[in-house]
């Protein structure tokens, strides 16, 4: 389902950058919970990079929380 959501958001990646960042962050956390650390790391770094582009601030991945990612999307997309 996560990949389906990413496929939908990716139809217009500029318009849905926030949702792509959120969904990718969730995917990274899911992959980490499944023990797929290399794939999780790639997804989480990508989500962090998108968030940094959106917010125009530089935050390290280690300092991000779900709340930080959640704040960049509209409440109906959470």
Summarize the structure.
This is Genomic scaffold, ProqFM164S04. The protein is an all-alpha fold.
Describe the secondary-structure layout:
Elements: H1 2-9, H2 17-33, H3 37-55, H4 66-70
Helix pairs in contact: 1-2, 2-3
Q: Kindly estimate the percentage of residues that lie in beta strands according to DSSP.
A: under 5%
Please estimate the helix content.
55-70%
Following the backbone from N to C, one meets helices and strands in this order, namely HHHH
State the helix count.
4
Low-confidence stretches: none
Main sheet overview: none
* DSSP summary, beta strand count: 0
Distance between the termini: 15 Å
Helix/strand-derived category reads: mainly alpha
Number of domains: 1
Radius of gyration: 12 Å
Sum up the overall morphology in one term.
Answer: globular
Oligomeric assembly? single chain
User: What is the mean pLDDT?
Assistant: 92
Organism: Penicillium roqueforti (strain FM164)
Protein name: Genomic scaffold, ProqFM164S04
What does this protein look like?
- This protein is mostly helical and 78 residues long.
- The chain has one domain.
- 63% of the residues lie in helices and 0% in strands.
- The chain has 4 helices and no strands.
- Helix 1 (2-9) runs antiparallel to helix 2 and helix 2 (17-33) packs antiparallel against helix 3.
- The mean pLDDT is 92.
- This is Genomic scaffold, ProqFM164S04.
- It comes from Penicillium roqueforti (strain FM164).
